[in-house]
Write a structure and sequence with these properties.
single chain, 282 residues, alpha/beta, 3-stranded mixed sheet, 9 strands
Amino acid sequence: MFAKQSNSKGVSVWQKWAPKCANLNCLTTSLLQTINRRHEGMSVDGRRYCSGDCFEQALKEMVKEVLNSQGKPAKAHSSRLPLGLLLLQRGILTAEQLKLALARHKSSSGTNFGDVVQQLGFASEEQVTAAVAAQWACPVFALGDKRLENELRIPRLLLELYGMIPVHYSESDRRLMIAFVSSVQHQVLYTIGHVTSCTVAPCFITAREYELQLNSPSTFLRDHETVFEQILEPHGMARLIRDYVIKLGAEHFRLGHCRDYFWSRISGSKGETDLLFRVRND
């Protein structure tokens, strides 16, 4: 019995010195093989991989899993009151103005209804924003001309693509408020929360406030953001992510799917970077 305990303790010491590879499909099965490959390994997010190839293989499976489990657009809420009727209900539009605005909207290509009523002078930007926020049961975040601090970075590409911007971040409880202009992108919010490890909530701001903040000279830059527009298969994404992880000596990485792009955030002793891969949006 003593011999069995000693042998068990010895194996435990060896496994601690040369831990098993975190890649479930790793072909390095014996303890001797693991020890021989110990200097080839890498540790990321507290997991040990016996080689860069094993990390890449595990990454490929992670990418597949995220692509299959995330990225489906949220279903439209059929019960949401149309913006025109809401403006009429609030006394901002008259019945005649609503009729005129609907006719103009029908004849205009690519212009949303909120812009149409503003162009006709029937409602202010603030009134339209408040009504849109009410449609989505969200608050309005009044920014005015206040300059935002970019306390928690979100890739600029995503800010432009989904008409959103981070407006408030509480570091103590890691709560992040994301402001939209025209509609809430719930799946994108979920991904932002996952990648940043934050609790994320939506709100609304006016289009003018959005443009002012997005185009401020030194706040929402494209630094540390690399975009791959060519469609890649999971193994191609995994290879590039692995290369960046090694290059940055990364300690952590997160993966998410923002409907149109696959997002990988990589952070380590040499900095942090975001990789954005265009994906098929079937």
